[in-house]
């Protein structure tokens, strides 16, 4: 086997392995990420509408038995800045 072919194989093999490892994950949406994040950091449910000067309605999330926070329709989870 020529030297350049060995070198190309040595460079491509790790890339193929890394691509195979990273290709099987499912994408999580922002809501799922925030639900996980808010299990350890204080969050509030914030109204989805655009309101000037941060005057949007805010309320505590509801907690399911498995520890996941959720918000009513028209609200989304947002971290609280202390």
Number of strands: 5
Number of domains: 1
> How many angstroms separate the termini?
64 Å
The shape, in one word, is elongated
Tell me the series of helices and strands, N- to C-terminal: HHEEEEE
Low-confidence stretches: none
> From the structure provided, what is the oligomeric state, counting identical versus distinct chains?
single chain
Give the rounded overall mean pLDDT: 77
Q: Determine the number of helices (DSSP H or I, runs of at least 4 residues).
A: 2
SS strand fraction:
15-25%
Structure, described:
The chain is 34% helix and 20% strand. The N and C termini lie far apart (64 Å). The protein has one domain (3-79). The longest helix is centred in the N-terminal third of the chain and has 20 residues, at 3-22. With 82 residues, the protein is of the alpha+beta class. The mean pLDDT is 77. The strands form 2 sheets. It has a 3-stranded antiparallel beta sheet with strand order 2-1-5.
């Amino acid at each position: 086997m020529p030297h350049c072919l060995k070198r190309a194989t040595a460079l491509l093999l790790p890339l193929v392995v890394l691509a195979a490892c990273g290709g099987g994950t499912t994408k999580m949406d922002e809501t799922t990420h925030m639900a996980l994040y808010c299990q350890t950091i204080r969050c509030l449910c914030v109204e989805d509408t655009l309101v000037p000067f941060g005057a949007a309605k805010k309320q505590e999330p509801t907690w399911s038995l498995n520890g996941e926070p959720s918000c009513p329709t028209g609200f989304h989870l947002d971290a609280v800045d202390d």
